Amino acid sequence: MLKRLRNLVAPPAAPARGTSGVSPLLRNDPPAVEQRAALLAGKNIPYTLKRSSRRRSIGLRIDDCGLTVSVPLRASEKWLHSVLQDKALWVVEKLDNWQARKPVETRWVDGEAIPYLGELLTLRVVQSLFDTPPARRGSKLFVFVADGGDAKKIEGAVTLWHQREALQLFAQRVAYYASLLDVTPRTVKLSAAKTQWGCCTARGSVRLNVQLIKLPLRLIDYVVVHELAHMREMNHSEKFWKVVGSVCPGYIKLRRELKAVAL
What is the mean pLDDT of residues 61-86? Predict the structure, then answer.
């Protein structure tokens, strides 16, 4: 399962004196969340600073929201500055990579390209008084709406079409690979998770991200196999990857390809 980029830094050998024994009413605790910026590797990098009394180390996370730095409640500014400068090149590189992977925002107008199974369909907007579902004809996706300039209606129609296509295709691929792996999933549902392509419970409930319908079938199959393999091994051990490889021998290349896709 695809996860956000993370980096953890342990506290220095001699951390600042704690606050045990001091009443919370008497402490001047800093704000829990702040918006800040720092000069890292020659670039001004905005970031979100989060403080927590439960943390014992400084953690750096990079995702679609940018850089988030999580620190212990009473972490010193000197320690924070030291960690940011030490990880400056890592932060800038990962942020640049994330921006490069970020998909181009779709314009919901006639002629726009709509991703589907690794290809691009041309969106054709047709004004219609009838509530007709979108229809694919070759390399074109026809959407029927009362107002051809209503971007929200067009987006909603395409979204529902993606969902219908995804549920039907995912159910087929799950059934196919379940027979090869000798497992019996109980349900197949769509997911709108922000950080996972799929998940599977020990009881056999499989959830697959609807965004997968935009990717090539080989990547959809890899995610399906990955999740079904968890019904045999609920971990990522060597045994788990052997199960994956038994029906998806090219999984290492596919896994690398999927990691390059922004979710």
Answer: 93
Q: How far apart are CA 194 and CA 102, in angstroms?
A: 13
pLDDT tens profile 38-65:
999 988 999 999 999 999 999 999 987 8
Strand 43-52 and strand 33-40: the pairing is: antiparallel
> Which CATH code, of 3.40.50.2300, 1.10.540.10, 3.30.2010.10, 2.40.40.10, is assigned to 165-259?
3.30.2010.10
DSSP 78-105: HHHHHHHHHTHHHHHHHHHHHHHHSPPP
Structure tokens belonging to residue 122: 């041309």
For residue 232, which phi and psi values (nearest 5 degrees)?
A: -100, -40
pTM: 0.66
Torsion over CA: 213, 219, 224, 226 (sign): negative
- Cα 98 to Cα 106: distance, rounded to the nearest angstrom: 18
Would you tell me the crossing angle of helices 217-229 and 238-247 to the nearest 10 degrees? Answer: 140
Say how many CA atoms lie within 13 Å of 50 toward its Cβ.
Answer: 12
Q: Check residue 261 and give its pLDDT.
A: 85
| Cα 234 from Cα 229, distance rounded (Å) | 8
